[in-house]
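Data availability (excerpt). All sequences and predicted token strings are deposited with the supplementary files. A representative entry, Tyrosine--tRNA ligase, is shown inline so that the format can be inspected without opening the archive.
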Amino acid sequence: MNEQVESGKDADLTTGQAVPVLSDRVRHALAVTRRGCEELIPEADWIKKLVKSEASGQPLRIKLGLDPTAPDIHIGHTVVLNKMRQLQDLGHQVIFLIGDFTSLIGDPSGRNSTRPPLTPEQIKLNAETYYKQASLVLDPARTEIRYNSEWCLPLGSMGMIQLSAKYTVARMMERNDFHDRFKAGTPISVHEFLYPLMQGYDSVALKSDLELGGTDQKFNLLMGRHLQQEYGQEPQCILTMPLLEGLDGVDKMSKSKNNYIGITEPANTMFAKVLSISDTLMWKWYTLLSFRSEAEIAALKAAVAQGANPKDAKVALAKEITARFHSAAAADAAEQDFINRSKGGVPDEIPEVALSGAPLGIGALLKSAGLAPSTSEANRLIDGGGVRIDGAVVSDKGLKLDAGTFVVQVGKRKFARVTLA
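Structure token line:
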């Protein structure tokens, strides 16, 4: 914060006006909120909420909504969960909202076409795993879990019409996705306008003080502020977090890009994937994924700048993330497994695969064992020197294997013990 002035106030450099001196606790909470965030809107209102909460002893209500569009989440999704946990540890009430109703609509955020709505059966199945996975980051004993069907279904057709009357089509068309699609002549269905309205209404129903989301959710988050004002509530603040780049360091983490780490992946796989990221990307991951303090991260970064091996810092990050979703013992074992592999060793536990058809071509074997998606990809891997059998590099794409048991390795992390009959 800014320097204290003689009037017993802090100087606000934005407005030039004096503002009340903030307590150390509020300053700390503000620093925790700001860490790694893209935008905090409006920050002045958030400070007022923090001051009010400290004075009254009443925790603030902090909301995160996720639509259960897939059964699993990856660590890119945990960026906002980490922020929730940080605010939870300050004593505030976090609300993990599962959008079982809004999933029926489908959110078009940032897409050129609408996301296909899920069936109620799919939503129920996915929702069952969501909170369990989120609880690996949040403290479940201090987390309020809600489903937006609680208030959206009772709203009914009359309530939906009344809600729709609180926002104009012109304002709705300011949303980038709608604007761009309209300009391009791409169809926009009327039901798509309901999604941001319903997400905003969630904030009314929950009386939220702060809503978190990715940068691609900004329009929907602002809708919550607008509707709360329409319903006579104090409007929530919004906090957007950056989208996490995946393993490639280019595109945002996504299963479709295959650059992700699933939070239910085996510990050894998770550890090795974290170590595969670039030294540059590592520091952003530290800010967004680590629970270390900013001072600790700054010290690590300074040590690397002065000549320390960046791999040591990356190993520490990999162990922290792996321990969070597994255990400290599993993280230690994953580190040892990685060391063994780097020395050419075989992991203690690898898949056992039984195949028939000996003699079998190496390309067909790799495909059948699940080590390559196709024989053509298998041949490409062989050309690149990425295939080993019992530790020996395979260079002959025409190789046929007779009956027997072999340890087959593809790249650094894929292994299988194949028994061929």
